[in-house]
Specification:
The protein is an all-alpha fold. The relative contact order is 0.21. Helices cover 88% and strands 0% of the residues. The chain has one domain (2-183). The model has no long low-confidence stretch (mean pLDDT 86). The protein is extended, with a radius of gyration of 22 Å. The chain has six helices and no strands. It has helices at residues 2-31, 33-59, 64-87, 89-118, 125-143, 152-183. The termini are close together.
Length: 184
């Protein structure tokens, strides 16, 4: 039992270290959102190229002439998209930002629809709050596009990393507290 509490306490310490790392890493894209956005665009470009290679390999495993042709066509589209992202990262960042605004707009609309369908449930009002904030963010990105490309993606990635860090920090602190209670 004592060994288990020491393991929980030690794991909690590592989770706290990981949490602080997430928080620090999250500050970087918030301070330099344009660089973070371009870095993310380059990463997406490489992912697209890798996806194209996977489709190319899948073409050899596809059944029938039509399956092979579709896989090769998808491979070409993925690779061309990836090369475009790598060769034109600023334009690609603008494309990603506009796509993000569209996704956020769709999410806001769906959240309102779900709210209307489930409005009698406890806590359903939070869906409406989420929809309003998401819609506001989508409109803010959309109305400032293409200049929002400079800050939107990098800032959102930074906020996500910081929120992940804080959630892990709370988990680590609970684990350490549990380890101390079990040891006592």
């Amino acid at each position: 039992m004592v060994t288990d509490s020491i393991d929980v306490k030690k794991a909690g310490g590592w989770i706290i270290v990981l949490a602080v790392s997430f928080i620090v890493l999250g500050l970087i894209p918030i301070v330099e959102p344009a660089i973070a956005g371009i870095a993310l665009t380059i990463w997406v470009g490489w992912l697209l190229i890798f996806g194209g290679l996977v489709h190319f390999i899948a073409a050899f495993r596809a059944s029938g002439f039509g399956g092979v042709i579709w896989q090769l066509l998808l491979a070409a589209i993925y690779v061309l998209g990836g090369v475009y992202f790598l060769m034109n990262p600023l334009l690609a960042l603008g494309t990603l930002t506009l796509f993000l605004a569209g996704i956020l707009l769709a999410e806001a609309v769906l959240e309102v629809v779900i709210f209307v369908q489930t409005r009698g449930q406890a806590g359903g009002g939070w869906r409406l709050v989420n929809a309003a904030v998401t819609l506001l963010l989508a409109l803010m990105i959309w109305s400032q596009w293409p200049s929002s490309s400079i800050w939107a993606i990098g800032t959102l990635v930074g906020i996500n990393l910081i929120m992940t860090g804080f959630s892990r920090l709370m988990l680590g602190m609970v684990a350490r507290r549990l380890g101390k209670l079990a040891h006592a």
